[in-house]
Amino acid sequence: MAETKVETQTAVETQQSQPAQVQIIHKNQPSQGRTDLDINMAIKSLQEETQQIFELIEMERTYGAEVSNQLKQIIMPLNLSYHIKPESISKTDSSISDVVLTPQGMVCVFNNAGSMISRPLESFQSDVLIRILLEVIPEIKVMLNEKRQKMSGRVMTLERVAKELRKVPALVPTKSSSGGKGNGSSSDQISVDGMRDKSSSSSASSQDAMKSVLDKQ
User: Fold this and answer.
1) Which site from 70, 81, 184, 195 is most exposed, i.e. has the minimal number of CB atoms within 10 Å?
2) How many domains does the chain have?
3) Has residue 65 been placed in a domain?
4) Which domain holds residue 153?
5) CA dist list (Å): 93 to 89, 98, 112, 117
6) Within-domain flag for 37
7) pTM above the 0.70 mark?
8) What would the pLDDT profile of 108-152 be if each residue is shown by its tens digit?
9) Torsion over CA of 166, 167, 172 and 173, rounded to 10 degrees?
10) What share of the chain is helix, strand, coil (3-state, %, to 5)?
């Protein structure tokens, strides 16, 4: 009787354990499907991120070249060079002694050994280009301001001179009267002398006008 009870209990335990194993198998199948879906979504996200990075790289290159060309159009007429901190070109290379940006848009890098390497401005990476712009643009602003003030002074001087010269009467030659040879010769001589006198007085007036304008400065 005891053996029969043990066998019956073992059979019951076996029957109860079989549905549990089947249930575990069914639970693993949806989990595997979700894992595949997550991987596919992650790969798709990587593709989108990579595509955006490629687009940004192309835009960065295009805008960098445009900024470089526009900067060269500004600094070339000034015909001045600009010193740049070596740290702006490389934060790790301690051999750089000096960096100069020429009016033609060439960056000349000098090292401690005395050698020099020149590169066009648009060939640098965007972070280096931005650091160069942060240094150069304030200097360009100061130089443009000085150039404007000098030109403004010259324009004001020319304007005052022009106003004074307008006051000088125009030289109108007098017509000689008809008559005999002797009278004609004498008349011509008087006319020439008169023109000389007018020319001298006009020249003196012009000099006085110029002197008065320059004295006002």
Assistant:
1) 70
2) 1
3) no
4) 76-216
5) 9, 12, 11, 14
6) no
7) no
8) 999 998 899 999 999 999 999 999 999 999 999 999 999 999 999
9) -120
10) 75, 10, 15
